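Re: the request from the purification team.
They wanted to know what the chain is likely to look like in 3D before they choose a buffer screen. I agreed to run a prediction and write the result into the notebook, where they can find it.
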Amino acid sequence: MSATKARDLVVIGLVAAVLGWLLVRQYYGALPPLRWYLPLSLGALGIAELISARTLRSRIRGSEGLTPVDALGAASALALAKASAVAGSGFAGLWVGLLAYTVPNLGFLAAADNDTVTGVIGVASSGLLVAGALVLENACRTPPPPKDRNDRF
């Protein structure tokens, strides 16, 4: 499995931003109030992935006192990291689409103030999720095999 490419995440984010902006532009009046705490779960997941990446990296590297990680556990963590990177990129795009609509309308729409705050928190939380996912994905890499000092060419 290859590493997640930044290009892919940017494309996902841009497509989601355009779709989000189109949807918000069309249905903004029908949306329920966007509370500031709604996107915090994305940030919490990103923090959890950062913490688990540190532990997983130590277990893969074979630090003393830690049990080695089994292959299925590492594969599960890698799948979670890849899915979280894509989801975080998509959510970041949706929040940017919301901001692209609310920021120009700050003086015209009463709800735009609160929704802009929520959008900024959403972009930050989504970015934290993507960062945590990429760090977790990097932690799943196996270290190079140790070089034998007695091996001569």
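For the purification team: Helices lie at 6-27, 40-61, 71-102, 112-139.
Please add any questions underneath this entry.
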